Amino acid sequence: MIPVRIPAPLAGVDSHPDMELAAAVLRKDRKATAEFVARYSGPVHAFVRSRLLPRADLVEDLVQEVFVAAWQYLPGYRGGSALGSWILGIARHKVEDHYRRRLREWDQWEEGDDAVDDAAPPVDEQLDRRKLSEKARSVLAGMPEHYSAVLLWRYWEDRSSKEIAESTGRTGKAVERLLARARDNFERRWRDGG
Amino acid sequence: MADELDNLWREFAAAADEEDPASAQAPARLQSRILSRLNLEQTKDGPLASVSESKAAGRELCVFEEIMRIAPVGEALRKPNYCRVCHARVLAEAMEEAPIWWAGCPYAQFHKP
After folding, report:
1. CA angle A78, A79, A82 (to 5 degrees)
2. Nearest to A98 by CA among A142, A137, A158, A148
3. Maximum CA pair distance of chain B?
4. B-contacting residues of A 61-120, CB under 8 Å?
5. Distance CA A30, CA B83 (A)
6. What are phi and psi of A43, to 5 degrees?
């Protein structure tokens, strides 16, 4: 547990509403803490839920972890970004930890058919953003977890194959092979209707 | 070719990443659990700020907290986390539509439609 101290910038008078809320939470004002939860749990929950597909069962625990981490790191918040963006940054780190664990645990990196077609994203349907998003979520939710994790990490979180390889202790080639299989799997499920 | 494919997938992901407006609010149960967990973390190295301080900061207290605020007791007795022993918290953490309506209660607030 990181010791909680009120840093100088938060201790003084600051009119920035995010800084005021952060300072009040650090003072352990119970009502400010409730406001902090009410204000940011929605975006954090939505983000984590979209990134943990298909593991809906892990979402609530991870969201709680994000808030506990936010409490621990709050003394370091200096208002450089909005508090909402700051806490979503923490959520992003937690989600990446999840991907890292899932792909490290996965033990079939060397198996499977390497000769999959490099599937292009399914763009042949005329869907508005909302429907596209819904269908993508539905497809991701039905995929094997290691496939959805690597796709979400690579494309939704925009991490390079090299970064994923370094994080998981695999080679870039192994990550590329996994991505190719995941793209192929996604594309087939999309065609089948998600 | 590989880069082109990657770009196409990135564009696809960006397009498919629209947030569902219905999910803008976390489940009330979850909000309640997060608050309880944060209050627990906050009391690991000392008590919460007193209810008097919350009131002075312009925040609304629930009826029990208000009683503690005006009661002739020392400031130390205005600092405990009374929510720990309140039925509202228990219900709020267990149910998605908990029957709690106390004014000034954050758990009730989470459960407001």
Report:
1. 145
2. A148
3. 77
4. 63-64, 67-68, 71-72, 118, 120
5. 10
6. -60, -40
Give A3-43 pLDDT, tens digit per residue: 433 333 333 334 478 999 999 999 999 999 999 999 999 99
Torsion of CA A118, A124, A130, A135, to 10 degrees: -50
Please give the structure tokens belonging to residue A9.
Answer: 């910038």
A1, A5, A13, A28: best to mutate for the B interface, most B CBs within 10 A: A28
CA distances to A149, A191, B12 from A135, in Å? 17, 11, 12
- Taking the domains of chain B in order of start, what are their residue ranges? 27-110
- Residue B36, token pair as written in the block: 């309880």
Question: Which of A187, A44, A57 has the alpha carbon at shortest distance from A123?
Answer: A187
Report the residue of A20, A41, A162 to disrupt the B interface, i.e. the one with the largest count of B CBs within 10 Å.
Answer: A41
Looking at the fold, whether A96 and A53 belong to one and the same domain comes out as yes
Residue B38: Cβ-neighbour burial (10 angstroms; 0-12, 13-18, 19+): buried
CB-CB under 8 Å, A64 with B16: no
Is A83 found in the same domain as A136? Answer: no
> How far is residue A82's CA from residue A14's CA, in Å, rounded to a whole number?
14
ipTM for the predicted complex: 0.91
Among A105, A131, A157, where does a domain finish?
Answer: A105
Mean pLDDT over each residue of chain B, to the nearest integer? 91
Q: What is the mean pLDDT of chain A?
A: 86
- B-proximal residues of A, 4-63, CB under 8 Å: 4, 24, 27-34, 36-38, 41-46, 49-50, 60, 63
In chain A, the largest separation of any two C-alpha atoms, in whole Å, equals 63
Q: Could you list the residue range(s) of the whole structural domain that residue A69 is in?
A: 8-105
CATH number where A142 lies: 1.20.140.160
